[in-house]
Structure formats: structure tokens, C-alpha cells
Amino acid sequence: MKYDVNEKGYYGEFGGAWIPEMMYANIDELRRRYLEIIESPEFKNEFEQLLKNYVGRPSPLYFAGRLSEHYGTRIFLKREDLNHTGSHKLNNTVGQILLAQKLGKTRIIAETGAGQHGVATATVCALKGLKCVVYMGALDVKRQAPNVKKMKMLGAEVVPVHSGNKTLKDATNEAMRDWINNPEDTHYIIGSVVGPHPYPDMVARFQSVISKEMKSQLLEQTGSEFPTRILACVGGGSNAAGAFYHYLDDEQVELIGVEAAGKGVETSETAATLQVGLPGVLHSSKTMLMQNSDGQITEPYSISAGLDYPGIGPLHSYLFKCGRAKYLAATDEEVLKAALLLTQKEGIIPALESAHALAALEKLKLKPDDVNVINLSGSGNKDMETYLDYFGY
Amino acid sequence: MKNRINQLFESKKKNIFSVYFTAGFPQLNSTTDIIHELEKNGADLIEIGIPFSDPTADGPTIQRSSEAALKNGMSLKLLFEQLKDIRKTVKIPLILMGYFNPVMQFGVAAFCEKCREIGIDGAILPDLPLEEYELHFKKDFEQNQLHNILLITPQTPEERIRKIDAASGGFIYMVSSASTTGTGKKVEDFRQDYFERVEQMNLKNPRLIGFGISDRATFSNACKFASGAIIGSAFVKALEPDSGLKTSVADFAKSIVL
């Protein structure tokens, strides 16, 4: 396939494994073994069973009638918010925990921003009885207290990270340091399509179940597996990678990623990496990054902690560069409005992250016959405080 | 002119004392003072750290010094500016050490040329892996007589050590244990079989041992297994700002030199 990662871990000029030698043994083992493991019938069977009976898949594809009427088009929602733990994150952690077991690892580490990936990791560690350590920026620990408590109840150790801006990037740095210091018994479950090869490809494969289901659900509901366009929010980009995956070669399907503009892409308070970034190397991957002219990574900002990251997965950098996918950005304000609209038109409260994809509907010329699929990556339960503060209920 | 790193290893086979510090720490303009004071007090080789916002292979001490240096206003451009006359006074080999992204934004070819112009003898870029180096950047380094110093760890397989040895000039940086810098693990705790195993491989390059070397005892122990050793975090921790700077550098160096 044209958009597949190559054998060196690159999508065009982006990707690779820019790892310090201390990580070589672990990454090399993963690189050599991940395909053989995840393609084996035994693994596939276990993975599919867990997706079905534990995660609750397939997630529904829901025709949003009143929202469609509002925009004068046809809108479908892929309901990843209905997965166990409330987001698409569990698809990946279920896959990676099975992989970690096959590799004989007994200790799991993860980074988390909003806490969704942390909860999804702590959940599968409880499921499999593995030790779990989650790194989380000290600021996020404060901002996302309920998720911290959930992780603790699930038996995970949550380590607050006090370096840098005390958010997702710093948590990722600390998880990488942990892995360097524990190279033998530990597997690092990265939560997005970022990091060194093979992570971006591996995580995209675990998330690809989203677009696989979409195809058969669309065929059933519309008579064609091909929608006009697919919209998904992008931080690191794992839900978008999953939603785009099986459509990458179907060039007639428009793919749209929506980044977090924060207070606006023209301000310094933004997380829209593709709009303001340049190619560079961070977290062992060559990709688009928010940085200054000296190559120092700058601090991102978004109302949504899950998109608050100064980089983006190398697949997205490539799709952006070659034009296969289009990337827009939505501001905090646009996102809050879009979230309220969905809530009151359909009775679904979306995660702040997912509301970025909804906000993009305002920016497109939509025709009545268009089929628009929004990947609703997560539930708004974790964001109630932000919503209540803003809308004043 | 022959590369100063090669000259050093030819003239001194044992107890080579190499020191790392972060440029721009404790003060923006500490760089040249620290280099002069280290040379005066017995350092054989100096690694000048280019601070980076996200030093993933470093422990708390170098994270803090990097953050402080960036806050002080340090950048790669400014560092080259501070070092432009360094060869008028300093004879020992100098190495720049840092993460790849600032070098990439400066331009790898421009970086290598600037190093030659100033008289920098080598670079250590831990997140520039062997494969990328050989494929894309080796030419730039070699054209400018700049050694790219590569790392090996206890987990590096023998075959890969051979490849790293073949691609290296100057010396091989032997990471004493799988760890970030400044973790407080002592060199005595490390498995000596790794040091001995590598020693018996008869590599073409000499070796220096780094990570976990913090005082004279750990330094002299590491020196038994290689041409010398590198001290980083312990030195950075010992640096005092302002008037105390020169004294703290001198005192530390004297406490190590064998």
C-alpha cells in the first residue's frame, strides 16, 4: 500500500527510530517481532475476542439525524465514546498488553495527558495482572483528578512529573527515561501513533479496527462503504489514524484531521502542529514539531489536555505533506460551541478532543447528498467541569 | 592537523579524565571560564553540552542544568559565538554533546563546518542512531575532521558493537549500565563481565566509560576497564554560580584526578 510504513520505519521523509543506544535492544526486539506476533492466528483471535467481549466492539455507527438537518447534509458518528473506559484508547492498550505478554514483559509503563490513555493502560494491566506505572505531568494530575483516582483504584502507580511544563510532553520524556533505566522486564505502552518505529505503525494497526468496522457499517446503512469524507481530531493522531487507515488508498474519500488551534493558530497559545510546526526530531521520531529557530520544543496549549502535544505522528506529517489528508484547526471557542450543539441536537456529550472534529463541520461546504463520518473518539464525562464552567449551568 | 582526540589517546593510555558540563549553566557566560579552569586542573577532554528542552536520556541533574541554561538564553548559535576564540587559549580536545534536533535546525553540514572552524574535535548526539548517521551525515562529519562519538551499552549485541567500532573515530562511549545520566547507580554495582567482554573484543577504537562516575573511587574503578572515564552529573551538581565558579571547578577536578 502506498501509505504503508517502509521497512526502515518511514512514511516518506517522516518517522524512523531516532533512539539513543540505551533503547536499541527493546526497540529492535519490537521491530523484529511485532508483525509476526500481531499477525499470528492466536494473537488475532485473542485480540478480537477482547475487542468484542471486553471493549464492547463493534462500536455503533450512528446516523445523527438532527445534526444532519442542521447542516443540510448526512452525518454519521462512529461511537468510540461507547467503548469501555469511554474512548478509542482501549483498542490500542488491549493490543499492546497482549503483545507485552508475548514478549515476556512483566511491568508496564505509560504516559498520559488527560488520563484517558493512563486509565486504558491501568485497565488492561488489571485485566492481565501486570504491574503498571503511569507518568503524568504534575499539572495534568491536578487538572484531571478523577482519572488519577481511577488509575489508582485500578492498581496503577501514578507518578507526577515535575519537569518542563508538567504536561503530556514531559510525561512522555519521563516514561522514556524509565524504559532506558528498566530495559529488561518493562514494556512501554505508547498511547498514540508517535514515538520510534514500530510504534506509529503498531498503534495505527490496533486502531485500524475503527475504519474496518466503518466500511461494513456504511455499506449496510448507505449502500456504499465509501463516505464523502471522514473527520477526526488529531493530537498525536491515533484515533484519526484508525479512522483513516482502511481508506488511505481509496483516494475518492476525503480525509480531514482537525488539530487544536487553542486560542488561535496566529497566537502562541496553540497546539496546531501542522499549521505552525517544522520538521524535527522529538520522542525518537522525525516529524512536524512546534519549535523555535534554535530547535527547542515550544509549549503547546489547548483547552483539551489530550491534544496538548507539540508534535504529531509521522503518518500525519506525511499525509499532510503529500496532500492525501487535509488538516484544519479549531479554536477552543469553536470547539465548545460544537460540543454544545451535538449535546442538544443528539443527546451525546462529546469529549473536548472529539468536539474538534465536530467544529470542522462549520468550515466545510457540505452538500445534501454528502456522507460525512465523524470519529467521535471519546465521551465528555471527563470534561464536565470545563463544560459547566464555560456554559454556566 | 591531526584530530586532538586521536592525539590524546596516542599520548595517554590510562586514566583519561573527561568532564561534561552544560553550556549556559550556571550562568549564560560560564562556558569559557569552566573550560579554562578544567584544563588548568587536569581535565584531558571536555564535553560541552548543548542544552535541549527535552533531554530524554538525562536524569534530574542535567535536566535542571539544561532548563536553567535555556532560561539563561543559551542557544547553539550563541555557544559557537562564545567558543569562537577558544583555540587561542585551550589545547585539550573539545567535544559538543547534545540532542539531534538543535543540530538539525542549525543544519548538520553547517554544524560540522562551524566545529572545524572553531576547533571542535568531536560530537556526541545520543539520539542520532548509527544507521541514520552512516546514511546521511557521515560525509559531513568526515569532511570536517569531526569525530562522531557513538555509544554502546550492556545490551548492545557484539555484532552491533563491531559495526559501531567500524563507524567510529576517536573513541567509543561505553555507557556503564542501562540508565539515564546521574541516577546514582555506582560503577561498582555494574557487571564487570560487560567491561571485560568488550575489552576482549580488541576494538580499533579506545573506550571511555561514562554514566555513574561521580568521585575518585568510581573514576579509578572505571579506569581499570578502559582508557579513562567521563564525569557529568556529579560535576554539574558541584558548580557554584558567580564568584565561587572557578573555585568549585578547580576543587572538583582536583578531587578526581589520579
TrEMBL record, chain A:
<keyword id="KW-0028">Amino-acid biosynthesis</keyword>
<dbReference type="GO" id="GO:0005737">
    <property type="term" value="C:cytoplasm"/>
</dbReference>
<dbReference type="Pfam" id="PF00291">
    <property type="entry name" value="PALP"/>
</dbReference>
<protein>
    <recommendedName>
        <fullName>Tryptophan synthase beta chain</fullName>
        <ecNumber>4.2.1.20</ecNumber>
    </recommendedName>
</protein>
<dbReference type="InterPro" id="IPR023026">
    <property type="entry name" value="Trp_synth_beta/beta-like"/>
</dbReference>
<keyword id="KW-0456">Lyase</keyword>
<feature type="domain" description="Tryptophan synthase beta chain-like PALP">
    <location>
        <begin position="56"/>
        <end position="378"/>
    </location>
</feature>
<keyword id="KW-0057">Aromatic amino acid biosynthesis</keyword>
<dbReference type="InterPro" id="IPR036052">
    <property type="entry name" value="TrpB-like_PALP_sf"/>
</dbReference>
<comment type="function">
    <text>The beta subunit is responsible for the synthesis of L-tryptophan from indole and L-serine.</text>
</comment>
<feature type="modified residue" description="N6-(pyridoxal phosphate)lysine">
    <location>
        <position position="89"/>
    </location>
</feature>
<comment type="similarity">
    <text>Belongs to the TrpB family.</text>
</comment>
<dbReference type="InterPro" id="IPR001926">
    <property type="entry name" value="TrpB-like_PALP"/>
</dbReference>
<dbReference type="GO" id="GO:0004834">
    <property type="term" value="F:tryptophan synthase activity"/>
</dbReference>
<dbReference type="InterPro" id="IPR006653">
    <property type="entry name" value="Trp_synth_b_CS"/>
</dbReference>
<keyword id="KW-0663">Pyridoxal phosphate</keyword>
<keyword id="KW-0822">Tryptophan biosynthesis</keyword>
<comment type="subunit">
    <text>Tetramer of two alpha and two beta chains.</text>
</comment>
<comment type="pathway">
    <text>Amino-acid biosynthesis; L-tryptophan biosynthesis; L-tryptophan from chorismate: step 5/5.</text>
</comment>
<dbReference type="InterPro" id="IPR006654">
    <property type="entry name" value="Trp_synth_beta"/>
</dbReference>
TrEMBL record, chain B:
<keyword id="KW-0456">Lyase</keyword>
<dbReference type="InterPro" id="IPR013785">
    <property type="entry name" value="Aldolase_TIM"/>
</dbReference>
<protein>
    <recommendedName>
        <fullName>Tryptophan synthase alpha chain</fullName>
        <ecNumber>4.2.1.20</ecNumber>
    </recommendedName>
</protein>
<comment type="pathway">
    <text>Amino-acid biosynthesis; L-tryptophan biosynthesis; L-tryptophan from chorismate: step 5/5.</text>
</comment>
<keyword id="KW-0028">Amino-acid biosynthesis</keyword>
<comment type="similarity">
    <text>Belongs to the TrpA family.</text>
</comment>
<comment type="subunit">
    <text>Tetramer of two alpha and two beta chains.</text>
</comment>
<feature type="active site" description="Proton acceptor">
    <location>
        <position position="47"/>
    </location>
</feature>
<dbReference type="InterPro" id="IPR002028">
    <property type="entry name" value="Trp_synthase_suA"/>
</dbReference>
<dbReference type="Pfam" id="PF00290">
    <property type="entry name" value="Trp_syntA"/>
</dbReference>
<dbReference type="GO" id="GO:0004834">
    <property type="term" value="F:tryptophan synthase activity"/>
</dbReference>
<dbReference type="GO" id="GO:0005829">
    <property type="term" value="C:cytosol"/>
</dbReference>
<comment type="function">
    <text>The alpha subunit is responsible for the aldol cleavage of indoleglycerol phosphate to indole and glyceraldehyde 3-phosphate.</text>
</comment>
<keyword id="KW-0822">Tryptophan biosynthesis</keyword>
<dbReference type="InterPro" id="IPR011060">
    <property type="entry name" value="RibuloseP-bd_barrel"/>
</dbReference>
<keyword id="KW-0057">Aromatic amino acid biosynthesis</keyword>
<feature type="active site" description="Proton acceptor">
    <location>
        <position position="58"/>
    </location>
</feature>
